[in-house]
């Protein structure tokens, strides 16, 4: 946990200082997501969640930083598992008309109150009362990384019904 906190603080510092380096290369979809599922499946099993992936296009690639894309998606999936209350988690992936990618991570968990949505992207803020472990840095880092990758990270949520995080690159 301490190592995770240190790494998050270092990433945040690099982003704020403009010192984060991107390594642009082809990123294959859905291969990257399928690989992520292998990584997070033990956590999903621990929480009693099932994972599903809906691919809405043929396999494709985009030019981006695979390490950073993976980092953002790993954070979104981990959060969906931790706050998803053991319910199914669905991911969708499709190529956009401009040869980018649009990914949604959809859970049916606690949800987020509309007044808390802006706060979840602030450093060290945790709005959930579920007492899940975390630093409160994952979403702020993920949003900033999405922006550095010429993309966006947004969320729609309804308390008691779940959340949908949308990453577009």
Task: Please summarize what this structure is.
The protein has 169 residues and is of the alpha+beta class. It is 37% helix and 25% strand.
What does this structure look like?
The structure is a single chain. The protein has 169 residues and is of the alpha+beta class. It is built from four helices and seven strands; from the N terminus they run αβαββαββαββ. A five-stranded mixed sheet has the order 2-4-5-7-6. A two-stranded antiparallel sheet has the order 1-3. A hairpin with a 3-residue loop joins strand 6 and strand 7. Helix 2 runs parallel beside helix 3. The longest helix has 18 residues. The radius of gyration is 15 Å and the shape is globular. The two termini are 29 Å apart.
Distance between the termini: 29 Å
User: Helix fraction?
Assistant: 25-40%
What spatial order of strands do you see in the largest sheet? 2-4-5-7-6
Radius of gyration equals: 15 Å
Structural class based on helices, strands and sheet pairing: alpha+beta
**Strand runs, count:** 7
Element order: H for helix, E for strand? HEHEEHEEHEE
CA-based shape: globular
Low-confidence stretches: none
Strand content: 15-25%
Number of discrete helical segments? 4
Largest sheet: 5 strands, mixed
What is the averaged pLDDT score?
89
């Amino acid at each position: 946990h301490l190592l995770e906190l240190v790494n998050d603080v270092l990433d945040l510092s690099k982003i704020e200082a403009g010192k984060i380096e991107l390594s642009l290369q082809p990123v294959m979809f859905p291969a990257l997501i399928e690989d992520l599922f292998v990584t997070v499946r033990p956590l999903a099993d621990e929480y009693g969640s099932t994972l599903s992936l809906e691919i809405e296009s043929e396999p494709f690639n985009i030019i981006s930083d695979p390490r950073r894309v993976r980092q953002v998606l790993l954070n979104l999936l981990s959060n969906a598992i931790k706050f998803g209350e053991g319910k199914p988690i669905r991911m969708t992936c499709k190529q956009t008309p401009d040869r980018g990618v649009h990914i949604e991570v959809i859970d049916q968990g606690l949800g987020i109150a509309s007044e808390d949505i802006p706060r979840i992207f602030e450093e060290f803020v945790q709005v959930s009362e579920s007492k899940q472990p975390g630093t409160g840095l994952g979403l702020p880092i993920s949003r900033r990384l999405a922006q550095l990758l010429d993309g966006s990270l947004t969320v729609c949520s309804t308390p008691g019904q779940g959340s949908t995080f949308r990453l577009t690159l």
